[in-house]
Design a protein that fits this description.
Length: 389
């Protein structure tokens, strides 16, 4: 019985060996029968490390669903998509607007408690004898070409509330009686208002107490290593919450921490949003999009066009004669479904974005097949291989 079980695998090995010899003999026979011109083209192709062209019947192209895209030189929008967590929810703190100097209140906006202030609204105007005197001294120094003295007065003028436009007007000879003008720095509501036109007020007098109805929302998000160089303070950030479909909240990046967590290799960023929606609460998870600065004038192709292997990246080109050829490229940064091509591809080249793996496999099979051929060193003419499907 034991002998019977031993003889079965031995018999299987013998049959497999004989079949392999049979098919190998037929294959080598077919290779030897190729035209010498075919062999020479194969030799040059292999030696130049180029991938053979592949031609496909147009009907087969349609059936395989092959799609194309043009390599274009444009901006790479380096937006960062990541997950964030709401780590802080604070009510908007009220802010007091005070007089920067003593003087007479010559104008006060005609709005009362509870009214809405729009960014840029003129809140009040103050005339000050001390400020008029300093303006006259500045103008006289500038007219006398005492540049150093005039420049030394500019910070003091700013501190007293004069703006750059008014200082330029003084240089141009305008009457040195400019009042201090204070504007709303952002959209706010008036909680309290004090003072009246014609009243003499001191420096630091509180004229307005303003604030907003929204909450300050801070979101912590982690950026992966390859995108560390894309994020900076001040960039716009968009946030969505799964529980509030259709709503997009806009904020900004306010802090970028040092890389944290050796295992994750992630960069922690803090985003801030002003939101008046009561459904937003602490510890909620959000989807965050950070709008990074674009990278200008780079050649881009869709990510789906790039074939990545262990040793190289390739794309499949559509050539002028209708054939296809894989070419080696050097890929750079990726964002928004696009890949930067650093080398190996010219602008306006047509690349395959769907079905390229089948074409690339066919070309690779031709290379492997060609390496088995005996090479005749006497010929040098190249021919194209036609693949039948």
């Amino acid at each position: 019985m034991l002998n019977r079980f031993i003889s079965i695998p031995i018999l299987t090995l013998i049959i497999g060996f004989l079949l392999g010899m049979f098919f190998s003999g037929n294959k080598l026979s077919s290779l030897d029968s190729l035209d010498p011109m075919d062999k020479e083209w194969i030799k040059d192709t292999v030696e130049s490390n180029a991938y053979p062209n592949v031609k496909i019947n147009p009907n087969v192209v349609h059936n395989l669903g092959i799609r194309f895209a043009k390599a274009e030189k444009k901006s790479l929008l380096r937006n960062i998509e990541t997950i964030g967590k709401i780590t802080r929810v604070d009510s908007m703190a009220r802010r007091t607007v005070t007089s920067p100097l003593q003087g007479t209140l010559t104008y006060l906006i005609d709005k009362q408690d509870g009214d809405f202030l729009k960014q840029g609204d003129l809140l009040f105007r103050i005339a000050s004898d001390d400020l008029f005197k300093l303006q006259k001294e500045f103008q006289e120094a500038y007219s006398a070409e005492d540049t150093s003295a005039a420049i030394a007065m500019i910070p003091h003028l700013h501190q007293m509330g004069l703006n750059d436009k008014q200082i330029v007007q003084l240089k141009n000879g305008e009457t040195p009686e400019f009042p201090v003008e204070v504007y709303a720095s952002e959209d706010n509501y008036i909680f309290t208002r004090s003072g009246f036109v014609g009243e003499f007020i001191n420096s630091g007098f509180a004229l307005f107490n303003v604030g907003s109805q929204h909450n300050i929302i801070e979101v912590t998000a982690e950026i992966f290593e390859r995108q560390w160089g894309w994020v900076e303070v001040g960039q716009t950030a968009l946030m969505t919450v799964r529980g509030l479909p259709g709503l997009v909240f806009e904020g900004s990046v306010v802090r970028v921490s040092s890389p944290v967590g050796y295992p994750t290799r992630s960069l922690e960023t803090t985003l801030r949003f002003n939101i008046d929606n009561p459904a937003i609460s602490q510890s909620m998870f959000t989807h965050v999009s950070i709008l990074g600065w674009p990278k200008e004038n780079v050649i881009l192709v869709p990510q789906t066009a790039v074939i990545r292997t262990e040793h190289e990246q390739r794309v499949v080109l559509l050539l002028d004669d209708g054939s296809y050829q894989p070419v080696v490229v050097e890929a750079g940064e990726e964002a928004n479904g696009m890949v930067e091509i650093l080398s190996g591809l010219q602008e306006s080249a047509i690349v395959v974005t769907s079905g390229q793996f089948l074409i690339d496999s066919e070309s690779n099979m031709l290379v492997d097949f060609n390496r088995m051929l005996p090479i005749d060193d006497k010929h040098s003419q190249h021919i194209n291989h036609h693949s039948h499907h």
